[in-house]
Design brief:
The protein is α/β, with parallel strands linked by helices and 742 residues long. Among the domains are: 98 residues, no CATH class; 107 residues, no CATH class. The chain has 17 helices and 41 strands. The protein has a 29-stranded mixed β-sheet that branches. It has a six-stranded mixed β-sheet with strand order 30-32-34-35-39-38. Helix 5 crosses helix 15 and helix 10 crosses helix 15. The longest helix is centred in the last third of the chain and has 31 residues. The chain is elongated and about 110 Å long.
Length: 742
């Protein structure tokens, strides 16, 4: 309800920080005369509430016209000059504006600002054509804090990962996806949850009397409402509809921009990010170098660095870096998506409220790629780099095979899975992903560490699980009744071998012996094509596993590739080219971590995460900056941790200690790793070659010359040139890796 206050009872004055008026003075009588002559007015007839620079020649009253001042107004240097940004050129000064309790820096242009209250403005700032720009005395600028006397209900939470808000996190200006992940996951630890709140509030003032903040070199023009906003240096805001209770992080090296029709409420916008064209964000944290545009709606979500979202809706999500989601009908809700992901057009990944309340959720590992028009039933979980084919998945899924292709079957209600599909048929995508994410990382300061190599500890631990699972399922296949086994066998060039192993499986003494028999069958019959059933992959109907022998073989090869690559990285770090047995002894002294978390994009061993929690709960760590320093320390040791993990993997694959290896064993590793490296190159060339030689790629062109002008030629492909050079370097380094072990 509107309230009328008599002029005699209006108290415009606000308690001023003494630092604001150092080197300032009230205007002289001559200056007051000029001010009033130019159509200006003050709530204090004597202009005692008005402060200007006390340096001689640094205040020109002629540059203030047709403006009203109330409360305490402080103005920095103001001399006759012009300030410009792109094509906008304005004379410095204050024109046709209404200011109340405002502190303005040096040589700013404030023009047509209808209402500006309670802000501290930096130097060289343009405020042009703004309807309302104000700040309450209890503003938190989007952070999940409370001011003096505020109830807990006033605190802003972001309900990531689940619509029931029981994974909610508090936003803060330094938040990165790693913080949000740890906070949203380990909810059973109530002491840890309380400590996270305390970390967020550490050394944050609860006092009332906040000012809105606009730092140096900011441009804000043609905007409707800015309320309780902190705008960091070099930000550019044009045509915004509503910005309320937010922090816009920005710097000269990473300037942020907000464009036409944008509405943003209760959140943090990261350095170097851009929000344009009627996008909406409510209760959010947007990471560094992100793009939100074309009507995108981001609600109750944390969006990781280097992500682009347009024309779609995202609700209650925690999204790690390098997420791509475009097109009008894309939809993502109640999910934790671990980055390097792409949501295709018409993919509707949303909670169906399968339980009695809206508390279903989805988790997807790195590289999640649902196909066009695909939809999923919650709760579901996906391993890393799962490619889900177009279709409607009517039951809950638990896809544990990384780098797999998943497709729905409309005949028997199962889902069909090809393990290691990317390595068998789509190696170009694996290689391209590795390079493209590095090229797209435009962050000037990289607080969130991001693993972009598809073969890394998170995916490798999934591969190890899948290798063991394929062995287990193969043991079941070998023990099937004859008719059932025949139905599940699609192509077998050696039926005698199959019968031999079926007899061995029947006579196996125990489960360990049976698994060894299944493993031997997969090794001796790698080209056989048979089917396996995995009841854990889909509720009710399970999954059919296609080409398990081929997938098993590829998984083992890429495990060797990962191990060799990590060991090459290790020797390079130590300024070496080759490994000797002493090096393996040194590596074995490094702690072995076999369980890893993708923590916001950074891969951290589970035990190191538990160590972090212990430090937080014991108050050895008391703020988020110290948490980030802990992440940095883990990253410094990452190469060593991977080297130790690599030795463990090699020993797992060969079922013996590396100290027992002979030259044949090392040669076998080299051959498989070289095969994978060359396969990456040759597959990439072959796939790109099809783009130039396929008949249907030519039908829209009049002649070969037009086609080459538009598409270029295979020889011009810069990516393939780099890949050839890097593959040659890799093979050369690989050949030196075990040379001392022969």
């Amino acid at each position: 309800m509107l309230k009328i206050t008599p002029a005699s009872k209006i108290d415009n004055l606000k308690k001023i920080n003494p630092d604001f008026i150092k080197g300032k003075r009230n205007p002289t009588s001559e200056e007051i005369a000029i001010l009033e002559k130019n159509g200006n007015s003050s709530s204090d007839p004597e202009w005692k509430n008005f402060f200007v620079s006390s340096e001689y020649g640094k205040f020109n009253p002629s540059q203030i016209r047709q403006s009203d001042f109330s409360g305490t107004v402080i103005i920095g240097e103001l001399f006759d000059s012009e300030i410009s940004f792109h094509d906008l050129k304005l004379r410095t000064g204050i024109y046709s504006s209404n200011l109340k309790n405002v502190c303005i820096g040096d040589n700013c242009a404030v023009q047509n600002v209808r209402y500006l209250e309670n802000y501290k403005i930096g130097s060289r700032v343009i405020l042009f054509n703004i309807m309302e720009m104000s700040c309450t005395e209890h503003s938190k600028f989007g952070e999940g804090l409370l001011k003096e006397g505020e109830p807990e209900l006033n605190r802003i939470w972001i309900g990531v990962g689940n619509e029931n808000n029981r994974r909610a996190v508090l936003p803060f200006s330094d938040m990165i996806p790693a913080d949000a992940f740890l906070w949203s996951r380990f909810r059973e630890d109530k002491e840890l949850m309380q400590r996270f709140v305390e970390l967020t509030e550490f050394e944050k003032s609860k006092e009332l009397g906040t000012y809105g903040i606009v730092e140096d070199d900011v441009v804000i023009k043609n905007s409707t409402l800015l309320k309780d906003v902190k705008v960091c240096s070099c930000a550019y805001i044009k045509g915004a509809l509503k910005l309320k209770n937010i922090t816009i992080l920005s710097s000269e090296d990473e300037p942020s921009q907000i464009g036409e029709g944008v509405e943003m409420v209760n959140g943090i916008m990261g350095f170097g990010s851009h929000v344009f064209y009627h996008a909406i964000a409510v209760r959010f944290v947007i990471g560094r170098n992100c793009h939100l545009k074309y009507g995108a709606r981001l609600l109750n979500s944390v969006l990781g660095d280097n992500s682009t979202v347009s024309c779609c809706e995202l609700l209650n999500n925690l999204i790690f870096p390098f997420h791509e989601q475009h097109h009008n009908s894309s939809f993502l809700i109640a999910s934790t998506v671990m980055g390097q992901s792409n949501i295709a057009s018409a993919a509707t990944i949303g909670s169906n409220h399968n339980s009695r309340s809206p508390d279903c959720e989805m988790i997807a590992g790195r590289g999640f790629w649902p196909g066009l028009c695909s939809d999923f039933k919650f709760d579901s979980k996906f391993a890393s780099f799962v490619l889900a084919s177009k279709g409607s998945y009517v039951n809950e899924l638990n896809i544990t095979y990384p780098f797999s292709l998943v497709a729905p079957s409309y005949e028997d209600c199962t889902v069909h899975i090809i393990p290691a599909y990317w390595f068998l048929y789509n190696m170009f995508a694996i290689v391209r992903n590795k390079y493209k994410f590095q090229a797209r990382d435009k962050r000037f300061i990289k607080v969130q560490h991001i693993e972009t190599n598809p073969l890394a500890p998170d995916t490798v631990q999934e591969i190890i699980f899948s290798v063991n699972r394929l062995v287990e399922l193969t043991s079941r296949y070998l023990k099937l009744p004859s008719d059932d086994c025949r139905k599940m066998t699609k192509e077998n060039s050696n039926p005698e071998l199959l019968e031999k192993f079926r007899e061995l499986a029947k006579s196996a003494k125990d489960s360990a012996s049976l698994l060894q028999i299944a493993k031997d069958y997969l090794h001796q019959n790698p080209d056989s094509k048979f089917l396996l059933t995995d009841d854990r992959c889909q509720k009710k109907f399970g999954a059919i596993i296609y080409k398990p022998a081929q997938g098993y073989k590829e998984y083992r090869r890429v495990l060797k590739y990962f191990a060799a690559e990590c060991l090459m990285e290790y020797v390079l770090k130590n300024n070496r080219e080759s490994l000797c047995m002493v090096d393996f002894e040194t590596i074995e002294e490094i702690p072995l971590y076999t369980k890893w978390f993708n923590v916001g994009g950074q891969l951290i061993p589970e035990e190191k995460v538990e160590e972090l929690f212990a430090k937080i709960k014991s108050r050895c760590i008391n703020n988020w900056q110290q948490v980030h320093a802990y992440y940095d320390e883990c990253q410094k040791n990452y190469t060593d941790y991977k080297a130790r993990y690599s030795v463990y993997i090699i020993e797992f694959l060969y079922s013996k200690k590396i100290t027992e290896f002979n030259s044949d064993d090392f040669e076998d590793i080299l051959q498989d790793v070289a095969f994978v490296a060359m396969n990456m190159l040759e597959s990439s060339i072959s796939i790109r070659e099809k783009d130039f030689t396929d008949y249907f790629r030519s039908i829209t062109f009049r002649n070969e010359e037009e086609k080459n002008a538009v598409l270029g030629t295979l020889c011009d492909d810069e990516f393939l040139k780099k890949l050839k050079a890097s593959t040659e370097d890799f093979i050369n380094s690989l050949n030196k890796l075990f040379v001392l072990m022969h």
